[in-house]
Amino acid sequence: MFGIWGHDKAAEITYYGLHAMQHRGQDGAGIVINNGENLKLHKDVGLVNDVFKRVNFADFPGYAAIGHVRNATQDDGIFDNVQPLVFRSLSSSTAIAHNGRIMNAEKIRRNLEEAGSIFQTTSDTEVLAHLMKKMNGKNTTEEAIIAGLKQLVGAYAFLILTEDKMYVALDPRGIRPLSLGRLGDAYVVASETCAFSIIGATFEREVMPGELLTISNEGLKSTRFLLREPRKLCAMEYVYFSRPDSDLNLVNVHTSRKRMGIELAREHPVYDADVVTGVPDSSISAAIGYAEQCGLPYEMGVIKNRYIGRTFIQPSQELRDQGVKMKLSPVRGVVEGKSVVMIDDSIVRGTTSRRIVRLLKEAGAKEVHVRISSPRIENPCLYGIDMLTKKELIAANHTNEEIKDIIEADSVEFLSIEGTEKAIVKDKTINQGICAACMTGNYPVLENDQRKEFYRKY
Amino acid sequence: MFGIWGHDKAAEITYYGLHAMQHRGQDGAGIVINNGENLKLHKDVGLVNDVFKRVNFADFPGYAAIGHVRNATQDDGIFDNVQPLVFRSLSSSTAIAHNGRIMNAEKIRRNLEEAGSIFQTTSDTEVLAHLMKKMNGKNTTEEAIIAGLKQLVGAYAFLILTEDKMYVALDPRGIRPLSLGRLGDAYVVASETCAFSIIGATFEREVMPGELLTISNEGLKSTRFLLREPRKLCAMEYVYFSRPDSDLNLVNVHTSRKRMGIELAREHPVYDADVVTGVPDSSISAAIGYAEQCGLPYEMGVIKNRYIGRTFIQPSQELRDQGVKMKLSPVRGVVEGKSVVMIDDSIVRGTTSRRIVRLLKEAGAKEVHVRISSPRIENPCLYGIDMLTKKELIAANHTNEEIKDIIEADSVEFLSIEGTEKAIVKDKTINQGICAACMTGNYPVLENDQRKEFYRKY
Amino acid sequence: MFGIWGHDKAAEITYYGLHAMQHRGQDGAGIVINNGENLKLHKDVGLVNDVFKRVNFADFPGYAAIGHVRNATQDDGIFDNVQPLVFRSLSSSTAIAHNGRIMNAEKIRRNLEEAGSIFQTTSDTEVLAHLMKKMNGKNTTEEAIIAGLKQLVGAYAFLILTEDKMYVALDPRGIRPLSLGRLGDAYVVASETCAFSIIGATFEREVMPGELLTISNEGLKSTRFLLREPRKLCAMEYVYFSRPDSDLNLVNVHTSRKRMGIELAREHPVYDADVVTGVPDSSISAAIGYAEQCGLPYEMGVIKNRYIGRTFIQPSQELRDQGVKMKLSPVRGVVEGKSVVMIDDSIVRGTTSRRIVRLLKEAGAKEVHVRISSPRIENPCLYGIDMLTKKELIAANHTNEEIKDIIEADSVEFLSIEGTEKAIVKDKTINQGICAACMTGNYPVLENDQRKEFYRKY
Amino acid sequence: MFGIWGHDKAAEITYYGLHAMQHRGQDGAGIVINNGENLKLHKDVGLVNDVFKRVNFADFPGYAAIGHVRNATQDDGIFDNVQPLVFRSLSSSTAIAHNGRIMNAEKIRRNLEEAGSIFQTTSDTEVLAHLMKKMNGKNTTEEAIIAGLKQLVGAYAFLILTEDKMYVALDPRGIRPLSLGRLGDAYVVASETCAFSIIGATFEREVMPGELLTISNEGLKSTRFLLREPRKLCAMEYVYFSRPDSDLNLVNVHTSRKRMGIELAREHPVYDADVVTGVPDSSISAAIGYAEQCGLPYEMGVIKNRYIGRTFIQPSQELRDQGVKMKLSPVRGVVEGKSVVMIDDSIVRGTTSRRIVRLLKEAGAKEVHVRISSPRIENPCLYGIDMLTKKELIAANHTNEEIKDIIEADSVEFLSIEGTEKAIVKDKTINQGICAACMTGNYPVLENDQRKEFYRKY
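YS: structure for the whole thing
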């Protein structure tokens, strides 16, 4: 999610900003540009490059823009749900981009539909537009947004663009990441700071939990729309979701990962191993940390094929059975006859880990000790990272010993919660804390109703 | 370059083999399949995935196939030159794929055209087809190939497919890599062994310098068509061109690179640096070796954007001047305020190195010490790696001190030739030697005429 | 516009039905299929063939469907406005296709938006969906549709598809064409009967003015939702819009056109001409009628290029000035040295007529007498045929004599209103009358407000 | 086939010229442009519009060009065979476009291949390039072309473009059409004069049988390369192949067709019929002539769907059995209860005629009398119109009475050879005669060898 206000190449800058955050969503992309008169939308399913390959940005002038990359958590991969969403009335237009999950969206929607409203999408993002519209008679847009946000329960970061302002809002716990920067005179907002670095912008500060920023030609105005609670930024952003060059809540992601590797080595060393290797790309930092802490050589035991793309033809089961590999291949020259420590950033279903253990053993590894640089994931995420249920999570249903057997490893150990916090949280007074609900079951945001619904569902 | 004889999914296997070697050529790809009756070609400009995305391999049955990925060394990016080339006459067809460079191709072509032959491409590969055609009255195809090869001067690996046989040939010095493997009963041939690993094949042996293999339903036959000389496999294949998981001439590429990093640390240590970093992806192995040898932490100081593809919209000069980055971005959290050792695998023109030094300094690096894990490249390659002239090579025209100033680094040092050989050549009796002509000027293959022409041109 | 209920190849049949009516709208096409559980939409801008070229109808099973081809009367050529429109709520879905124009749509929309509704399109069709939604608490869908329709003023034909029924409605004057047919046990509905003939269906009857048909698995039910007034089917459907093989309101279009030509010959003969020619394709029938009545030879004086399509590269002005032609070319061998009667079906702006007169004269025609097989068009259409204003209509601003000079003809005459009626209306008790508002200014449907607005606007 | 010399928009003009002649070949298109330095080719399979839709003619500057549309007579629809063919050597380039058929091409090719030449295509056109290449040591290009042409037997029209000249050649009988025109100072050449009319060029004269034109910046030079024999222009060009607005050998095609209809009415009238109708588009002229001569009304009994294109989805057999129609549909309002004379331009296999007779009868026609405005086609064409064998020609195997039964008509009659000649040949001293070999079996060009081979094959 990326926004900019006050730059005459707003659409292009947004394109590069989204491009830097492509890893956050590969199912769709869109940009809405404010050209001073109205809002112009270009969006489609697919990667940023593909969506914009035929766009000539000269035909797309404007001064402000918001953009979004979509990660389809459910199989609703339809065009309509690709964001930003734009809502046009006879008098004005509003564009909305959203990252996170509104937990009471369905309930709000049901009420609105009964009163005669028609929804355009199945996206939880759309409820905010309708809540705003219901207010818009006698209120300013800002008042309508605040009234709408107060009815939402969940984890969210919103960018809202109208003909004359850009609004930026973060949920009261700050579960999703959102940073503010400057590019010359322009304001920029992004889910990750790697977007600032790619466009040459400077980091200004984090958007605060419960804060609404109103950005216009008069400058920036900050409003606290809900009482701020201690920040609980999603731990999985550090573990695997964000880019290593981003700083989240003032902590560099690569550095936090390397520290997780170091903590992991302290907690669960393998002294008699020959080499340490990591699963590319997100586990490399932790693997190097682990190797340094243990004094073992770090080697490339597994190579990722860089050319797997949308058009790659998947091998048939028959060919896979014959040994045709796809995304990852082992480096025989490195692992043959060796005792290998394989660092992975997390285990969700366990299927990927098993595939890699098998690859290494087929390539001649004598032993494979799996070390995971995050805790056991035993609970579903309610805040938008994915939509897995408890049943699908291997650690929710198995001990370490059982997991070891399932993934065919010689041993398996996980980093502790304490180790994870130590690696991520520099200083409680500065970056406060993390949301580790998927590891601990301690959900920072949950309505009574949701709680019941949640236990019924998962 | 990939070939297979004796597998009922020949086209698909070739697709995966080429895919594993995509890094060897990104300008075009093609596969010729032998379906028992005739040769069927599918080729186009572009990446393997793009070229074959609409191909249904079920419509492309066959028992043998050869494939090629094209690296357009010159700006001749035309469809016709994409390989394999197929030559059809009323009585038979021949497909040819070639890796390397035929130094006397133009001279041969001129003679043939004067005698009335019409060429279809501007590729040096085509001369072999015409030399073979001129022989084909009273000779076997094998005799025609040998007669043709004997007229060629250069570095070459050829795959030739006819309706009833597959031929494999390597130049007398073995400058280009070429390996033989088995996949069940089938024979496979590939430029790099990573192709074997991706398809589940086993490595059998290197094709020998000056050897012609004839593979058919009767099995494999080896002929020595020219006196074998000590092998001189191209050093740049180890330095940056090949994939780390390939074994070239029995030596693993990642391992040789890590050893180059270790040798480099021995020759040119930087004792008071804070971190070691490498330019992704080809310099990572060396950087880790360097860091381990020096006892310094290895960190990700530079990140490569994985989503740059054909459809990426390049930023305008105006945006680049404003700081918009493309392929690489520095990790501020890692380099800010630090003294950084930056390992790169080679310096050719020096422009990339300068860009990275600048990125690191902009991100706050206090000092940047550049260490190159290969020797100074002072001479053009005549054997197909690229077509740069002496004028374009920074090391051919500048001392280390000058290079340091040009790339804006705090110091620059190169690995020695001896260190390079030590890292690559395990044992002279086994893998003999390397072609380091671009570093030493000592060209293993050169006709008298070529020699003159060469000095006139470069 | 096409609908079918009760056929297991509903989507395919709809495709062929739309294809037969491609001439009614070339800017977009869509089909909504009812697969027994929900509504599935496929639509896009472009011709029917292009929109559906990648669709495999086997993936699109269903039992009922509605489809639409879009004629963008205004430059709003956006994807969203392509029909059918689909409205989904948590409990049900509704698809709507519409042909015609709702004159009070903007007023209704403004009221709904003030009450908090959000519209998805700029199409006048969408108001019916919102009017229905507002009713849907305590009413059946049928009651909601009737309540909605009663609020609309204009000329309209609607197809509405829900999970369990298909609804068909025609405005109280029956200005737009709409016929009912049978295909085996299935019911089919189409704007023109040529769609029936292409799919092998039989014509059953016209949909009546002010009639709502409800079609479901229980069969067909007819409701009169507004008092029926004498039918006034749009005359321009006969003049040029419909296909010659369609029967509109029980009269064949080709036959009515030929009769217009015959009437025109009676009213305005040219006795000393050499040949009669017509502008392809819509004027050919009239030209043949004219020639037969006058006893003059009919010849192809002008040829239409059949291969002009979306991808045709328009000649630059420079090339057009040099004589490069596009769509039409004269047949010199037919017109050189001749006195030509050129029959055209209508004159709107006059630019096309002038172009053809010029073509004929450049090809050597001695004289060109233009005869128009419809009356002078002096008033804008308010019912959906086009959106031209009075200012743009040549006959609203010029006498025949002036038009003759503007289009550079030797004489110009028009068919009278009486002649037109005589050619179209077989029998007042059967097919009643026509809407000739654009010719006479006598608008059959007009609110007081509209009247004022209309005179302000046009 | 189109060529131009001396115009600064040569490529664009050629595009429009080819577009006008799209009906001559719909399987591929190409243009070669001479930009003063070298020849640049753009070609592909598909229609002219599709092949050039992404071409920006500004990137394609030049002063001379040749273009071709390909009619794949055999199922060899491969890219390589699309013309013009371009042959490049180290010293020069030659482009060739060809219309017709070289009967001894295979024999020549066999000899050349045995001497070591490699062919690029399976096209008979390529032999001329090789014959020229073999000569090019000591001769001018013109001498090489003449020497090559003298070895060819068949019907041919050639356009040859080199860096400095354009050559135009026609076979000694002039079986294929070829006209010369002027566009300002530029020379233009086209298979049909409709191409001149579309680009605003004037007709100059026919290219003569056995004539070679050499066009360059020095102007036009004419050489007789073979003794001219009386011209025998292909009758089928008049019957159905050419466009009605073209003049072939000084006779307008529409006019000749109308005269064929008139002659047909004289030879085979149907006095008690109600209406005359024609199969669109090529039979309309004849049908009008027939109707005028008989004094019967001409009506549109059959409509052709204008939107059938490459992307049209063909109905399945199941749907066709249910009555779904494709290309043609009958006009019930015109034919129901009537006795219909259906004029078709020719009967080849008889399948199309039967389909139309059935359509008319299903639409209620009482009687269908088929009248064919050309003679019975009893012999295969050897000169490039199509590749049917005697076995496939209905008239080669059946009497009129039998044909009547096969196509389910009430009567069938054909125009006589004499009537055909009378309609086409104005004046033996001016346009001489026609090739009616397919009707009479009297082949104007045939080698002894060919004769034997011919009787063996067909």
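YS: worth flagging: The interface with chain D takes residues 87-91, 106, 109-110, 113-120, 122, 129-130, 133-134, 136-137 of chain B (CB under 8 Å).
IM: good catch. Also The first helix of chain B runs from residue 10 to 20.
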